[in-house]
Amino acid sequence: MKKLLEEQQCLSKLGADLQFVCKRSVHDTIPFKLTGCKLHKPFGAYCSGVKSPYFRVEKVDIETCCALLTILEGVDMEGYPTDSCTELYSLRKTKKCIIVNLNCFCAITPLPPSLVNKPLPIIEPKK
Fold first, then answer.
1. Cβ contact 20:122 at 8 Å
2. Domain boundaries, the chain
3. Short-list 29, 36, 41, CA closest to 4
4. Residues 25, 28, 33, CA angle at the centre, nearest 5°?
5. 3-state helix, strand, coil in the chain (%, to 5)
6. pLDDT over 90 at 68, yes or no
7. By C-alpha distance, which of 96, 83, 11, 80 is closest to 54?
8. Average pLDDT score, the chain
9. DSSP states of 5-57
10. How far apart are CA 82 and CA 106, in angstroms?
11. What is the Cα–Cα distance from 9 to 28, expressed in whole angstroms?
12. Euclidean distance between CA atoms 76 and 84, whole angstroms
């Protein structure tokens, strides 16, 4: 988790010191899913009435082995909240955070940063 936070911080600072290049990195989040140790099931937290298994790490406390996570809301192609991996099209940042004990998890599955704030497709009506 600590390494993920370090890489996420590098990603968000990418291009910050460039003088002549205007385009900064558009990604500042490495989304991920957690798997619980006891039942080996995906961990999720509720946000807007939907259980979300997607998170962004904000802080890691090595002494307590806890992490502050922001809940990411999964949305389908039409922009509706979803917790289904098969329907997931984009991830939206929320203002909801949770603190978790990292000893309770046995796996972390990073997801592509390009999923965060991915623009929804424009679907043309059939003629």
1. no
2. 2-115
3. 29
4. 135
5. 15, 40, 45
6. yes
7. 83
8. 86
9. HHHHHHHHHTTTT-SS--PPPS-----EEEEETTT--B--EEETTEEE-EEEE
10. 24
11. 7
12. 9
100 touches 69 (CB < 8 A): yes
Return the amino acid letter for 19: Q
Q: Which amino acid is at 13?
A: K
Contacts of 4 (CB under 8 A, 6+ apart): 30, 32, 57, 108, 110
Q: Which residue has the tokens 């009435």?
A: 49
Q: Which two tokens stand for residue 71?
A: 């809940």
Q: pLDDT tens for residues 96-127?
A: 999 999 999 999 999 999 899 998 888 777 77
Instruction: Note the residue count of the chain.
Output: 127
Token pair for 11: 């990603």
Residue with tokens 């046995």: 106
Burial readout 30-53 (b: 16 or more C-beta within 10 A, e: otherwise): bbbbbeeeeeeebbbbebeeeebb
